[in-house]
Design brief:
The structure holds 2 protein chains of 2 kinds. Chain A is built from 3 helices and no strands. By secondary structure, chain A is mainly alpha-helical. Chain A has a domain of 31 residues. In chain A, helix 2 crosses helix 3. Chain A is rod-shaped and about 85 Å long. Chain B has a domain of 157 residues. The chains are: A mainly alpha, B mainly alpha. The interface between A and B is large, with 31 and 40 residues.
Amino acid sequence: MDLLFAAPALPLDEAGKYVAGAYVVFVVLLVVYLAIMAAKVQRIERELRDVAAIAERNKEIQAAPGREAEEAAPYG
Amino acid sequence: MYGKGLKPLSIATVAMLTLSLSLVFFYAPLDGDQGFIQKIFYLHVPLAIVALVGFILGGIFAIAHLRTDDRKWDAYSYVSIHISVIFGVAVLITGAIWAKASWGHWWVWDEPTLVSFLIVFLLYATYYPFRYAIEDRDRQARYASVFAVTAGAFVPLNFMAVRMAQSLVHPRTFATAEGGMPGEMMLTFLCSLAAMALLWTTLVKFELTAKSASGQVKRLRRALDAPVAGGGSRIAPEVS
């Protein structure tokens, strides 16, 4: 363990790799998290579009209650 | 409701992160002992502090949930722990890089600070399977809250135990006997800490907003008597 204290400060060209690595890891984690969140938001948007379509269809059915029955049995 | 104030908060976070990075690389002096490697300190230590405080906050929100039985607090607790676990991953990786650069080893097993943080991280990593194992949503929320309170109480105890262990290897952030950090370093550190705290808050708010939106869509679907797409998440609490 004493060797750890004896280790001198790394020269800038070598230390720079480690410092850059640490900051890049942080940025990569942040970007991955944001990408996952973006996918979630896209899914919510898709679901919302589906719900809007269902609501519109329900509204149309309510507006013309006989039409669905006519469409179901056009020769009846 | 959760999205209120998210935009100014995000702008403040980006501004603070930019300021802290500028201070780290253009203002803070080079450490006489560690040299350029010490720049990792301004990332690693604030991340660790914010992650640990986030775990404690998760416990406090869980207490609020157990007292009020309001699912909102369960969601706050879950999201606080979730973001803190992500921060924990960053702490472990940046810490390993720093250890390799200054000690020559990726990990030192007889260093209490490192091992204790790993224990806390692994403890919280079990939070997800623990939640996932319980089907009933009310029981899931209650048991997860009990877990969050117990684990949250363990965090400061663990921190104090490590301080009392008086390790000679891991540097102390606020050394007292040696006179502490110079003013420029302290200012840079505090800015980095504020930036990480803002980032944590923004991500928590972002996650809660997404969960709230998802919950609202599911409620709408149920109101329209339409099947819920995907059946919803069994693990994450629904927020409405």
